Amino acid sequence: MRAAFRPRALRHVTAARLSCASSPRAAPVGSGKRVGAQMAAAGCDGDPGPAQELLVAWNTVSTGLVPPAALGLASSRTSGAVPPKEEELRAAVEVLRGHGLHSVLEEWFVEVLQNDLQANISLEFWNAISQRENCADEPQCLLLLLDAFGLLESRLDPYLRSLELLEKWTRLGLLMGAGAQGLREKVHTTLRGVLFFSTPRTFRDTIQRLYGRFLRVYMQSKRKGEGGTDPELEGDLDSRYARRRYYRLLQSPLCAGCGSDKQRCWCRQALEQFHQLSQVLHRLSLLERVSAEAVTSTLHQVTRERMEDRCRGEYERSFLREFHKWIERVVGWLGKVFLQDGPARPASPEAGNTLRRWRCHVQRFFYRIYASLRIEELFSIIRDFPDSRPAVEDLKYCLERTDQRQQLLLSLKAALETRLLHPGVNTCDIITLYISAIKALRVLDPSMVILEVACEPVRRYLRTREDTVRQIVAGLTGDSDGTGDLAIELSKTDPASLETGQDSEDDSGEPEDWVPDPVDADPGKSSSKRRSSDIISLLVSIYGSKDLFINEYRSLLADRLLHQFSFSPEREIRNVELLKLRFGEAPMHFCEVMLKDMADSRRINANIREEDEKRPAEEQPPFGVYAVILSSEFWPPFKDEKLEVPEDIREALEVYCKKYEKLKAMRTLSWKHTLGLVTMDVELADRTLSVAVTPVQAVVLLYFQDQGEPPDS
Hints:
This protein is mainly alpha-helical. Helix content is 59%, strand content 2%. The chain is rod-shaped.
C-alpha cells in the first residue's frame, strides 16, 4: 500500500522547508511524513500565512477522518478536544484542494487504516477469538463470537464513517482519487486481506459448526407448520424414508433443530443471533469472506446426508421435484445468511447477485452428487428396469447439466465386468441383463453411444459362450423363461429389418429435430443406424452374421417338431412369419418347408388311417403307426444312429412304407429309428402304466416282454 506520492506543481513553490507557528493540533506522524514532504514543497514566497492555513487544514482533516490513536495522538475523549464537524472537514478539504494536496488524501486514508489494522485492530480481534475457541457449548460460543465481531465493528466504525465522507466528497468533485466505488473496494480489500491473511483452523471449524447448526435450525423452523405437522411428510408416509424419519422424530427427546433437549430449545434465539451476526458481517463487508467456506461445506454435507438417507436404493420414483423444493428452502436459508430477504437487503448490484450465484452453485452440486450416486447404483438400476425408469430419467436430467459421461462409462464397465462377466453367471442371466441395459440406456442416452461403449465387454464375453445363440433363439420363440422380452420384441408390428439394416419407420425426421452424436461416439458407425437398432438387431450383431441365428433356429425348430407331438402349429407358423420380417424371406424358406412337412405328414397319416379303418378287423395292423415325413435336404442333418427294432415293429413300418409309396408315386421312406415317440402300456404286478417314451426306451421294454417270468426265489 506504500505508493510513491508525486507532488503536484503549484503556483507558489519554494524549496525551503516551512517555518510555521505552532498549530492548534499536533502534526500528523507515521504515514503522514510523505504528505509533510509535499506540504514543505508548497509555500508562498516565504509568507507563513498560506503555510499556516495549509497545516491547520491538514491537521483538521487527518484527525477528523481517522482515530487519534492511529496517528499516535491522545484520544479526543481524554484530551477534551471536540472532533471537527463535517462543515469544518469540508472547508479543510477545500484548502487542501486549493494547494493541490487533495489527490493524496484517499491513499493516505487507506495506508493509515492498513497500519492500524496490522498494529492494533487485528491483534485485538484474534485475541478475543482465541479466548472463545475452546467453548464447546454452542449457544455460548455463538454469543461470544457475536461479541468478538461486535468489538471489531466498534474499532472499525470511525473508518467506515470517514469512508462515507470521502465517497461523498469524491462524488462532489472535491477529491480526485480512484472514485467512490474504487475507494470502497480498496478499503474493504485491505480489511479482508489484513484480518484474514492467515485464518486459524479452529476458527474455520467453529464457523462451520455454527453455520451447520443454523441451517438445521432454519430448516426445522420451516418444516414445522402452525399445527405442528411436517409438510414434508404429509401424504408421503408410505415411503421408507418418511416412516423412518417420522418415528425418529416422535421418539427422540432432542430438538431436531438445535440438538438440545426439547424443554431447553434455543432455536428462536439462534435465529435472532445469527441474524445479528450476519448484519455485523455485512456492515463490515466480511459476510461472504467469513461465511462462504462454511456455507459451502455445510450445504455439501447436508446434501450428501439427505441424498444418502432418501435416495439410495430407491429407484421407483423420481426425486428431482422433491429436491428442487428442498433446494428452494435452502436458498431461503441463504437469503437469511446473506440478508437477501429482509429490510437489511444490500443495495449494491453485486450483493443482489449473491443469492443467484449461490442458487446456481447448490443446484450444480446437487446434480453432480445425485448423478454420482445413481452412476454408482447403475448396475442395480439396469437390473430392475423398467421399474427403475424414474431413476434413469433423473440421471439423464442430471447428466445433461454436468460433465460426468466419462465417469458413468468407466463405472458401468467396471460393474459389468465385476458382477456379470464371470463363469458363475448363467448365459441366460447375462442376456437378460444385457436386454435390460439396452432398454435402460436407450432412455438414458437416445444416441446409444453409452450402450455401445459401456456394453462392449458384454458383447465380447457372450461371443465366448457356446450356448449364447441357442439362448437368444429360445428367447425369440418364447421357450426361455429368462429372456421372455425377446418374444415380445419379436412380435412388434413394425420391426427393424435385419436384411436391409434400416428401420422400417421414416428415419429422416425434421431438420430442426436433428441432434448431433456425443463427442465419444464412434465416427465409423452410422448415427441413424445406431439410434434405430432394436434389441434383436443388437443381439444378432454380437456375431455379425444372421446365418448363425437362422441355423440355430432351424435346429431348435427341428428338435421341437420331432420330440413334441403336441406342439402348436399356429404358434410355429407365427414365429416363422415374424422371423421372416427380421431376416428376410429366403433365409427362412427351409423353416417353411419344415412346417409344411409337418402339415403334409398329418394329412398322409389321416389318409392311411382312414383306409385302414375301412378294412376288416383281421386285416388291420396290431398297433397304429404315425410317421413324420421329412424332406431330408431341408432339415438339419441328423446323427446316423442305428437301432435294432423288434420284428413286429419292423413289419409294421414296412407296411406303412408301402402304403406311402402307393400314395406318393416314385417316393419312398428311410426310417430314423432313434427319432420319434412311442405310446405304450406297461403292465406291472400291481398296476398298468400308460407311458410315452423314446424309441430306444420302447425297444428295451419290448425285449423284456419277450423274456419269461423270473423264477420264484
